[in-house]
Amino acid sequence: MTADQQPDRELVFPDEAARRLVATALDEDLGPQALDVTSTATIPADQVGAGQVVAREAGVLAGGPVIALVLDEVATRTGGTSPSLDVRIADGSALARGDVVAELRGSLRQVLMAERTLLNIMSRLTGVATHTRRWTDALEGTGCTVLDTRKTTPGLRALEKYAVRCGGGTNKRMGLYDVAMVKDNHVHAAGGVAAAYAAIRARYPEVTIEVEVESTEQALEALEAGSRFLMCDNMPVDLLRATVDAARAWADERGERVEIEATGGLTLEVAAAYGATGIDWMSVGALTHSSPIVDLALDLL
């Protein structure tokens, strides 16, 4: 991306965000009394057993640490003892149908009270990671890297962006606070690209500034204004290639580097063609707003 804003690729699990999500999800599922009426009525408090989290379809795993967080929170709310846990597959690993992700052993009540919450979260995150892996595979060899966007599920941003990293993608910006993106409305309000760029640079001198462009002429205007990070929006592949070539030539003449991102209207079918235009990045909102879940289940032994 740029020298002052490196993209995030590390698989560091967002523990604090996950704990908040688990608490909210269990509030929904167990209610104010932390109660599972079915399990409480049918399973003795001292009955123990084991279960396995199993993949029902192929994918790329994300969210494994959630299992322990859910088990521990259920135990805390019910005054029970958290089941033991053996996680067998690491996040970012490929899953085949039938793979055992983890084995749980302990109170069956605790296991079943935790079941739906941990599966809901893990299935969602694994779906994002799996979808992202398809994009990274499609772009292999092009020199282009897929980025996520802010089109995330409210409250799940840190976790969904973690899942993108599990799938081999890269996080662009976490919010409105860490990268400035000058879009058409900002240009209109500020009175031009140069005015918008200058205002941001003066107020926030350390922040990365990206300018959205829709033509080669706009790209060159943004470069003249000072931007070294361009987002080419909804460009046909031929126009994108021409814009990349013009921007690179402009930067080469001055001994500078410009980074170029494509976005808008991109699909897996055209990903390789767009990646081959010479862009650095391809941002895909669908990684987080349209990824189907991967079916995971909990089977008692």
Automatic annotation (TrEMBL):
<dbReference type="Pfam" id="PF02749">
    <property type="entry name" value="QRPTase_N"/>
</dbReference>
<comment type="similarity">
    <text>Belongs to the NadC/ModD family.</text>
</comment>
<comment type="function">
    <text>Involved in the catabolism of quinolinic acid (QA).</text>
</comment>
<keyword id="KW-0808">Transferase</keyword>
<dbReference type="InterPro" id="IPR027277">
    <property type="entry name" value="NadC/ModD"/>
</dbReference>
<dbReference type="GO" id="GO:0004514">
    <property type="term" value="F:nicotinate-nucleotide diphosphorylase (carboxylating) activity"/>
</dbReference>
<feature type="domain" description="Quinolinate phosphoribosyl transferase C-terminal">
    <location>
        <begin position="128"/>
        <end position="299"/>
    </location>
</feature>
<comment type="pathway">
    <text>Cofactor biosynthesis; NAD(+) biosynthesis; nicotinate D-ribonucleotide from quinolinate: step 1/1.</text>
</comment>
<dbReference type="InterPro" id="IPR022412">
    <property type="entry name" value="Quinolinate_PRibosylTrfase_N"/>
</dbReference>
<protein>
    <recommendedName>
        <fullName>nicotinate-nucleotide diphosphorylase (carboxylating)</fullName>
        <ecNumber>2.4.2.19</ecNumber>
    </recommendedName>
</protein>
<dbReference type="InterPro" id="IPR004393">
    <property type="entry name" value="NadC"/>
</dbReference>
<dbReference type="Pfam" id="PF01729">
    <property type="entry name" value="QRPTase_C"/>
</dbReference>
<dbReference type="InterPro" id="IPR037128">
    <property type="entry name" value="Quinolinate_PRibosylTase_N_sf"/>
</dbReference>
<dbReference type="InterPro" id="IPR013785">
    <property type="entry name" value="Aldolase_TIM"/>
</dbReference>
<keyword id="KW-0328">Glycosyltransferase</keyword>
<feature type="domain" description="Quinolinate phosphoribosyl transferase N-terminal">
    <location>
        <begin position="36"/>
        <end position="125"/>
    </location>
</feature>
<dbReference type="InterPro" id="IPR002638">
    <property type="entry name" value="Quinolinate_PRibosylTrfase_C"/>
</dbReference>
<dbReference type="InterPro" id="IPR036068">
    <property type="entry name" value="Nicotinate_pribotase-like_C"/>
</dbReference>
<keyword id="KW-0662">Pyridine nucleotide biosynthesis</keyword>
